[in-house]
Amino acid sequence: MSADAATPIPLLARSLRLTAVPSAVSVSRMFVSHTLKLWKLEDHAETATLVMSELVTNAVKASGITDTDPKSWQIKAEHVIGIQLRAIEASLYVEVWDRTDAAPVRKNPSLEAEGGRGLLLVEQLAKRWDVYRPHVGGKVVWAELPLGLPVELRPFDHVPLILPSGIRASRGPVEGQARTALLDWLSRTTIEAMIAARVIPET
């Protein structure tokens, strides 16, 4: 089959850059719920929200401010994380960028431990997960969730997501780094999916 005769693979993708503070976790859940409702994939919102919450929590701990009520002067331009949802073929990808190189470590907490179960939960819910290191630096931690059926492109309203004041990352070098890293990962994996489906020839 020639590339000209092939049917393009439907792709849905949305991303957002947030200030790396604890409240980014709840905002990331809003982002997932809002986006999947637009995409008519609400049935997957609960699982995707849990996975996004865990990945964002790790990203904030790695590169942000852990004070639950940070002062404005504590927040610098480098306190940025990037989040992205992507649906392609029969998979939904939850993707989170932060500016640190250190990979998240799966822990084996005791039954009495209050935390440390984040990646264990991601492993249970996701088909697979891994870390991608973009050329601009930092890392994208991603998880693939099965959709059951291939995604279809449907018309939908572009309803804006209203965010709390101060949570959207300010424009700057690190915000740009997050944007570029997520676009890099999206482009790379989309091309791989198209090659696997023989929509474009392998080079």
From TrEMBL:
Molecular functions per Gene Ontology? ATP binding
Keyword Transferase appears in the UniProt entry: yes
One Pfam family of this chain: HATPase_c_2
Record domain Histidine kinase/HSP90-like ATPase: where: 21-143
The protein's matches in InterPro entries, at most eight in alphabetical order, are given as: Anti-sigma-factor_SerPK, HATPase_C_sf, HATPase_dom
> Per the record's keyword annotation, is Magnesium included, yes or no?
no
- Transmembrane stretches in the record are none
> Which keywords does the record carry?
ATP-binding, Kinase, Nucleotide-binding, Serine/threonine-protein kinase, Transferase
UniProt name for this protein: ATP-binding protein
Which species expresses this protein natively?
Answer: Streptomyces bobili
